[in-house]
């Protein structure tokens, strides 16, 4: 289980060390930094996919994602001054068995058209929840990456690692650095669900080719295939119970439609079932959440961003029960501002609720003082 998430100098997150539990709710007012926490988590998994720099570019470029305030807490009450420390954006996490962090900075001025792209200055992988020299398993400093060789020494993995490539990509050798490969695949398995589209042209409303689907796609395009997979090899009783909890007396089936398939919802009082194209936005979105949270192959780590969007308030208690059930199989982080959903989850589980707020422009966790936050240390460049 991931116990700590660490973010520094990303948007309003000047330095945020977040304790995580098996089910963690991240909430706060608009503009408090909830979306930044979600984006930072997605950015971490993009590192393992090789897409972190492109992800930053989609957010407006490296410079626009950096913390814009002063460097030191003592300066937060004062007007921002000129920076004296190297520019950096740092992300990391620690689990009970392993930890990882990455430090992104600006490149040396050159003649490249892409000099505005960030470069990777430092990466570390360590054993256990705390970074300390004796626990280091692999590290990268500039272009040099090395790993423990099992004999209290170090094995050089690459001396010319490109500044834009993580060692999770360039050094994942199953013979010399199996811990890098294992961590990369572990991070790639994290699953994220954001706002499902439910407009008239949404992928979830179209018929699709049916193939066994262990995890719903993040755009919901394979809803029918994911639903049928749960029905055949997953928890069929839980699937029907989730539908009945939200829409009493209703049944959802997957039916052939031309060369493809689609879901059909049968509701009490109607003479025929309704296809996905006919369902209301809220109904379709809730069915998507059922398919996402009842996956027959649950991930180790699952992050939901504002799952309450477009749902009627009366559906939130049922959604809370679905989330709590999923948290028994996956570690969950739920980013939400729906007080009714939060209250329902808190009634149903022993979750951890983190209230974000801003102090002088920087996001912090209400009631979590610096001495109370999880132990964390960033490696020096």
UniProtKB/TrEMBL annotation:
InterPro entries: ATPase_AAA_core, P-loop_NTPase, RecF-like. It comes from the Bacteria. GO terms for biological process: DNA synthesis involved in DNA repair; double-strand break repair. SUPFAM superfamilies: P-loop containing nucleoside triphosphate hydrolases. GO terms for molecular function: ATP binding; ATP hydrolysis activity. Residues 23-342 form the ATPase AAA-type core domain. This is AAA family ATPase.
